């Protein structure tokens, strides 16, 4: 008999975000505590090194799927925070347009673009 197996948080599909707040998100009739990365391959639990200053290393998984992404919405918490110049340059190099905004605005915009079947991804920092 084995002990509890902790698996990486991953929902294998695209789904609109039903709710956010209280430190997490609801989607596909499930909930996740913490930040999330919404990619073409699914929704992943995401732990940026420092949510206040997102860096290149926080987006390695996204870059792996860059060919399927045209727009990245960066929900930086309760307030808009600019994207670091080196991160913006990396995204541009991969043909991805990055739009920083508050997490609430990013969730709403993601849901609209997802409904339009656009090549969108979202990096969403959890808010209380």
Main sheet? 6 strands, mixed
Rg, rounded, reads 14 Å
**Alpha-beta classification:** alpha+beta
Approximate helicity band: 10-25%
Largest sheet: spatial strand order: 1-6-5-9-7-8
Q: Helix and strand succession?
A: EEEEEEHEHEHE
Give the strand content. Answer: 25-35%
What is the approximate shape? globular
Task: Please work out how many helical segments DSSP would assign.
Answer: 3
CATH superfamily: MTH938-like
Query: How many beta-strand elements?
Result: 9
Q: Would you identify the CATH architecture?
A: 3-Layer(aba) Sandwich
CATH class: Alpha Beta
CATH topology: Hypothetical Protein Mth938, Chain: A
Instruction: Give the averaged pLDDT, no decimals.
Output: 92
Overall tally of domains: 1
Distance between the termini: 38 Å
Low-confidence stretches: none
């Amino acid at each position: 008999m084995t002990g509890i197996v902790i698996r990486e948080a991953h929902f294998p599909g695209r789904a609109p975000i039903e709710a956010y707040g209280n430190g997490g998100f609801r989607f596909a009739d499930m909930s996740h505590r913490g930040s999330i990365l919404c990619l073409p391959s699914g929704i992943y639990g995401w732990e940026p090194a420092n949510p206040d200053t997102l860096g290149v290393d926080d987006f390695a998984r996204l870059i792996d799927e860059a060919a399927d992404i045209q727009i990245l919405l960066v929900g930086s918490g309760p307030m808009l925070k600019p994207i670091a110049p080196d991160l913006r340059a990396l995204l541009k190099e991969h043909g991805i347009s990055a739009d920083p905004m508050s997490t609430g605005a990013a969730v709403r915009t993601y849901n609209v673009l997802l409904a339009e079947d656009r090549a969108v991804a979202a990096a969403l920092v959890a808010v209380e």
